[in-house]
Structures are given as C-alpha cells and as structure tokens.
Amino acid sequence: MNQQTGEIDLFKHRISGFLAGAPYSGKSRTVKEAQRLHPGLVFVETSDALKSCSRSEEAKGYMRKGDIVPFDLVLTALREGVAKLADGQVALFGGFPRDPEQGALAVTLRLPVCHLDTDLATCVARAHARMAEAKAGQADFVRGDREDELDVDVLIRRFGLYAFRTLPALQQCAEAGILRVITGGSEPHERGLQLVRMLGLA
C-alpha cells in the first residue's frame, strides 16, 4: 500500500474512526442514537460515499453483486468524502474495513475501529424480515440502487464476505490494538453510548 504521507495525515485529521459490522447488525440505529447523544457527530457511510464519488458507476457494479469494492475505488471514495466535509469537521466512516487491505489502512492510520458485534443469527433473521417487508411493499428502503436487498444470492454473498474477509480484517485491527467492540445485543441507547465513548466524545 503506497500511500503518500500527506494523504495519510489528511485521513488522520478528518476521520474520527470507523464503524464495522455484519449486514443488518444495527449500525444505522446505533449511529442515530450516538448522534442524539452527541449532535456534533458526523457520520459518512462508505457505501454512500462510493455511490456519489467520481467513480461511482464502477463501484456500483461491484456493490449490486454484493462484492467488496476494489481498494483503489474505496480510497477514491474516502478521499472525496473527506473533501466534502465542512471546515473543521471530522467524520466517522461506516462500513469499513471490509477486507484485510482496508484493515491494513485502518492500522496505518491508528484510528479506532468500532465493531458492532451482533450475533450473526440475529442479523440473518433481520435480513429475512426486511426482505419480507420489501416484497409486501412495507419497506421504504428498496429503491434505485438498493434493489439488491431483495436478491437472496447477493445477501448470502454479503454475509459470506463478512465472515471470510471482514472478520480477518477486524482481527488485524485487534492485534494492532485499535479494535473496540460494541455489544450488539444491547439496546440502541447503550450501543450509541458505547460508540460515543469509544470515539472519545464522552
């Protein structure tokens, strides 16, 4: 990984940390609760940054299939996502790291990686429930580039990649001493409080 010192320094000063977790682990609710507790917390979902970056069409091709986006595209999204922050803002990036290459960047940055450790059986049950709601027209999240949420094969791939690519990346972070574990089975308020504390905001 040949990152210039200037870019590493930029990420260190504009990123407060990362939030990782399995699909349907409850990351969004956790962040909302953390923002309620600390309104100044800025959150950027890496997948959203990918969808709006200058190479978004390339990124979306991977995301629609449930694949991990190549590292150079993720770097572009991080770089451009940071550039969009207001002066003085520092953001928590969600959905990162997803694989060992991204994990290596997190280790280089020495930023906290907060892992929402929700039981995988719970995550799978939530995915089934969300798919049922979507098929019944009761969920408002399935639109545009989120249609992949209805594809069982894509979901299976996403869970498999979490188990075989993301968890090893998180192990890297643990060995480097930057991993922080959020108890996934706790209430949203408690998870949000844990996150705020891990980022040094409380």
What this model shows, in words?
The protein has nine helices and five strands. The N and C termini lie far apart (34 Å). The protein is of the alpha/beta class. Strands 2-3-1-4-5 form a five-stranded parallel beta sheet, sandwiched between helices. The chain has helices spanning 5-14, 27-37, 46-52, 56-64, 71-83, 100-109, 120-135, 152-175, 188-198; strands at residues 15-21, 42-45, 91-94, 113-117, 179-183. Helix 6 (100-109) runs parallel beside helix 8. The chain has a single domain (5-198), classed as P-loop containing nucleotide triphosphate hydrolases (Rossmann fold, 3-Layer(aba) Sandwich). 33% of the residues are buried.
Radius of gyration: 16 Å
What would you give as the CATH superfamily? Answer: P-loop containing nucleotide triphosphate hydrolases
Task: Please tally the helical runs, counting DSSP H or I stretches of 4 or more residues.
Answer: 9
Low confidence ranges: none
Estimated structural class: alpha/beta
Largest sheet: 5 strands, parallel
Q: Compute the separation of the termini in Å.
A: 34 Å
Molecular shape: globular
CATH topology: Rossmann fold
Number of strands: 5
Name of the CATH first level: Alpha Beta
Rounded mean pLDDT is 91
**Whole-number total of structural domains:** 1
SSE string, helices as H and strands as E = HEHEHHHEHEHHEH
**Percent in strands:** 5-15%
Which architecture per CATH? 3-Layer(aba) Sandwich
Strand order of the largest sheet: 2-3-1-4-5
Instruction: State the helicity in percent bands.
Output: 40-55%
